[in-house]
Amino acid sequence: MSSSAKSAIRPLSPHLQVYRLPLTAILSITHRITGIGLSAGLLLLAWWLAAAAYGPDAYAAYAKVAGSWLGYLVWFGFSLALYFHLCNGIRHLFWDMGKGFEIAQAQRSDKLVIIAAIVLTVLTWLAAM
Predict the structure, then answer these.
(1) CB atoms within 10 A of CB 2
(2) Could you tell me if residue 5 is inside a domain?
(3) DSSP classification of residue 98
(4) What is the number of other CB atoms lying within 10 angstroms of the CB of residue 12?
(5) Stretch (H or E) spanning 116
(6) Which pLDDT value is given to residue 15?
(7) Is residue 15 included in any domain, yes or no?
(8) What angle do CA 24, 29, 33 make, to 5 degrees?
(9) pLDDT value at position 118?
(10) Domain total for the chain?
(11) What is the rounded CA–CA span in Å between residue 109 and residue 90?
(12) N-term to C-term CA, the chain
């Protein structure tokens, strides 16, 4: 059998189309993404502070954008990313202490991070309204 025939029947190693990432890995990737998103979101906070410092006209322009449906969507996403990053960061602190590495504990903390981030975001928005 030629080498090209052998390579044609060999299975491919697992890749993202075949291999299903565990939730812990997905949350780890999401933790990094939310960290980048929070850095970008700080520009919005800087815009808010600068608009407040530059006077009523600048603040009115900011308020028009931030008060639109897109502005609310962006602020909601920012707050969800903030709480997710916070909750997952707390979990990483426990991991740094060597706690929670068993599969059952990691899976339980996966769900706890997601639920806590959603609950904290909803409570924040309910309190703000």
Answers:
(1) 7
(2) no
(3) T
(4) 7
(5) helix 103-128
(6) 67
(7) no
(8) 140
(9) 98
(10) 1
(11) 10
(12) 72
